[in-house]
Amino acid sequence: MASIRREGSAVWQGTGKEGTGTLTTQSGTLRGTPYSFTARFGDGQGTNPEELIAAAHAGCFSMALAFQLSGAGHPPQELATTARLTMEQEAGGWRIAAVVLQLRARVPGIDRAKFDELAQAAKANCPVSKVLNAAISLEATLEG
């Protein structure tokens, strides 16, 4: 069985609320990228884990759908996906409760039923969808 490993790291200094941290990815795309309480729960500078998960989910879904569409003989011109992640506070902390994938797609020559079938399969089977313990929905617009 094949496997792929990826790494990311975090360094945090200080308390949970007043401290600050940095994130670094194996690829170097993020290198010492700041994150903080205010970036996570307010409008402070830097990134946060949830927006990174949302971006990863949008990217994973888009690539999975491109493979689905291409395999069915309908390579896409463009797949533009936004993932809107919602966190909710519960007893004991916060959790990622839901992700809405909003897709605008240009796929020549495909009918709506086939497009919807493939988009739902990509939503269910992309690795990020599989790892999230959250309600995942899809709002898909097929243009042109």
Concise overview:
This protein is an alpha+beta fold and 144 residues long. It has helices spanning 37-41, 49-71, 112-125, 127-131; strands spanning 8-13, 20-25, 33-36, 78-90, 93-106, 135-143.
What is this structure's SSE topology?
Layout: E1 8-13, E2 20-25, E3 33-36, H1 37-41, H2 49-71, E4 78-90, E5 93-106, H3 112-125, H4 127-131, E6 135-143
Parallel strand pairs: 5-6
Antiparallel strand pairs: 1-2, 2-3, 4-5
Helix pairs in contact: 2-3
Description:
There is one protein chain. With 144 residues, the chain is of the alpha+beta class. It has 2 domains: 8-41, no CATH class; 49-143, GMP Synthetase, Chain A, domain 3, CATH 3.30.300.20. It has 4 helices and 6 strands; from the N terminus they run E-E-E-H-H-E-E-H-H-E. The strands form 2 sheets. The protein has a 3-stranded antiparallel beta sheet. The chain has a 3-stranded mixed beta sheet with strand order 4-5-6, covered by helices on one side. Strand 4 (78-90) and strand 5 (93-106) form a beta hairpin. The model has no long low-confidence stretch (mean pLDDT 96).
Q: Notable features of this structure?
A:
single chain, 144 residues, GMP Synthetase, Chain A, domain 3, 33% helix
* Weakly predicted, low-confidence segments: none
Q: How many domains would you count in the coordinates?
A: 2
Based on CA atoms alone, the radius of gyration comes out at: 18 Å
Order of helices and strands: EEEHHEEHHE
CATH topology of the largest domain: GMP Synthetase, Chain A, domain 3
CATH architecture type of the largest domain = 2-Layer Sandwich
Q: Helix tally?
A: 4
Strand element count: 6
Mean pLDDT, rounded to whole units? 96
Q: Let me know the CATH homologous superfamily of the largest domain.
A: K homology (KH) domain
The share of residues in extended strands comes to 35-45%
Distance between the termini: 41 Å
Helix residue percentage: 25-40%
* Quaternary structure: single chain
